[in-house]
Amino acid sequence: MIQEFNNLTEDEMETLLNTPVWITLLIAGADNVIDKKEIEDAIHITKHKKTRAREDLINYYTLVDKKFATNLQGLLELLPEDPKEISEIAMENIRKLNDIFPKLEKSFAIHLYESLKDFSNKIAKSTGGVLGYLSVGYEEAKLVDLKLVNDPSKS
Fold it and tell me: What SS3 string covers 27-94?
């Protein structure tokens, strides 16, 4: 268990651990197509983050990685096929962070928030563009900064 999760309920912990899945679905579906490459890249990014994230986030990403691919595939099978509906459900789940971050130690919440924005940006850049330019589409660009989540550094 992650020490920073001590003040959280089981549901809140599950929400935090599934947030990268919801971010993947939100960003991948922003252009109305959930691309196989975005899914594969998300799995790769998650594996990479469990060894390359800030030290205080290593345990978090290690736990995320254990179920990430399975949870992502499971949700893709369970959720409606319409990417807009998936995006709405993803946003609803990501917004739950607004109630969870204040319960976390502030520096951990700030680091996690920044890391999730980085994760979102990497998913957005995983497809499209030419030689790295214009790799983030217009719809993805509106979502990639996770503005639906209150920045814990400003609270």
Answer: HHCCCCCCCHHHHHHHHHHHHHHHHHCCHHHHHHHHHHHHHHHHHHHHHHHHCCCCHHHHHHHHHHHH
Report pLDDT digits (tens) over 11-42.
999 999 999 999 999 998 888 888 888 899 99
Angle at alpha carbon of residue 154, lines to 101 and 144, rounded to 5°: 70
Q: Is 117 exposed, middle or buried (0-12, 13-18, 19+ CB in 10 A)?
A: middle
Residue type at 98 in one-letter notation: N
**Whole-angstrom distance, CA of residue 88 vs CA of residue 117:** 18
Question: Nearest-CA neighbor of 116 among 6, 22, 41, 32?
Answer: 22
- pTM value? 0.91
Domain borders along the chain are 7-154
Which two three-digit tokens encode residue 116? Answer: 């999730």
